[in-house]
Backbone:
């Protein structure tokens, strides 16, 4: 039907008498944004997020764009995988509602081919000048999904998880303006570098995000401005959590084209220090802890760790590259770390990215880390 409609419009433009001068194609919407939700045990939070989107997704706030939500869940009673695609838009009388498009039952939301198919469907059926994606679910940065048989990288679906390199494969070649993660600890340099070719801007948290997640009532319109308003995306997140009952959170925006320069100076520093140089560090005493999910080794502030290994001249270049790469950032005075001794960590330094300082005791994890990730294969 869509193809027939396009052909019809072309005939009108060419001057057939049945069409008047006013019969012109609709202007292309400014942006299509797909919010990709993998519920796991976060269903109540994600459904509240959807309700909040509905409250603010007026045509004005969406700037003429398209807001799509893919929501997936595993039904433990029926033992079935379920997925539904919706559009949230303003209708008659200015009422915003959720419009069912189709289901994707029986397929994993964390499968590379299935994920790519869903995204292609959305971007084909809702063409726009630019595109963005927001991923909502669990996440544990770059850690392998089978690490200690208890963790996951992105998402959780009846025990199935998605490695970050697989996520990069699913997103490869897409025309994304931004890629945002409403998920814990994705602000790792290892994740940002793995996904560097997937979007122009990379939005993530270096720490654990409270179950409430992104405050969509405040944030959503800023994703749809003609140029995404990254400053206010970060500010609205920060201001919301300052007044929240659990006032803990961080968010940063990485301009991905800057990662090449940042990686080049990092390679210079790490190649000189080597693995042994990392082993010689004492992270728990020297550096700002930013993520320590239960069962995982800790992640620390990127600038803290790299500066400890750099010469003064390298530090200057590192900080210059960071300033050009991390273009917006915010963090609360304390963050929540489920694996830390008291769970609440005071923040004194924050670059907007984390890094894993290699720990000699994690032999198996280190082998995986050094051989599977684009970041480590580049800088060591």
Residues:
């Amino acid at each position: 039907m869509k193809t027939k409609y396009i052909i019809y419009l072309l005939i009108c433009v060419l001057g057939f008498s049945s069409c008047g001068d006013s019969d012109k194609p609709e202007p292309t919407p400014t942006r299509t944004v797909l919010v990709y939700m993998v519920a796991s045990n976060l269903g109540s939070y994600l459904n509240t997020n959807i309700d909040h989107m509905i409250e603010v997704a007026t045509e004005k706030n969406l700037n003429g764009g398209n807001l799509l939500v893919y929501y997936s869940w595993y039904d433990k009673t029926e033992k079935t995988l379920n997925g539904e695609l919706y559009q949230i838009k303003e209708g008659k009388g200015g009422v915003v509602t959720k419009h069912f498009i189709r289901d994707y039952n029986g397929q994993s939301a964390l499968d590379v081919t299935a994920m790519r198919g869903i995204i292609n469907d959305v971007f084909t059926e809702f063409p726009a000048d630019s595109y963005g994606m927001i991923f909502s679910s669990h996440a544990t940065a770059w850690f392998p999904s089978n690490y200690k048989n208890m963790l996951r990288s992105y998402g959780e679906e009846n025990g199935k998880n998605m490695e970050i390199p697989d996520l990069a494969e699913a997103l490869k070649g897409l025309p994304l303006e931004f890629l945002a993660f409403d998920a814990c600890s994705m602000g790792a340099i290892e994740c940002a570098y793995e996904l560097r070719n997937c979007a122009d801007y990379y939005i993530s948290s270096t720490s654990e995000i409270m179950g409430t997640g992104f405050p969509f009532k405040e944030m959503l319109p800023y994703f749809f401005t003609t140029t995404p308003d990254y400053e206010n995306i970060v500010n609205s997140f920060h201001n919301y959590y300052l007044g929240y009952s659990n006032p803990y959170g961080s968010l940063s925006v990485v301009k991905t084209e800057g990662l090449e320069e940042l990686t080049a100076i990092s390679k210079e520093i790490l190649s000189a220090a080597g693995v042994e140089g990392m082993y010689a560090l004492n992270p728990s005493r020297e550096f700002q802890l930013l993520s320590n999910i239960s069962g995982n080794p800790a992640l620390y502030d990127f600038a803290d760790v790299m500066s400890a290994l750099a010469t003064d001249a390298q530090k200057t270049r590192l900080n210059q590259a960071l300033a050009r790469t991390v273009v917006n950032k915010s963090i609360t005075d304390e963050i929540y770390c489920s694996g830390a001794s008291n769970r609440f960590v005071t923040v004194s330094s924050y670059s907007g990215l984390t890094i894993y300082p290699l720990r000699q005791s994690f032999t198996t994890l280190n082998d995986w880390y050094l051989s599977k990730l684009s970041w480590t294969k580049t800088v060591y």
About this structure: The chain has two domains: 31-257, 260-379. The two ends are 53 Å apart (CA to CA).
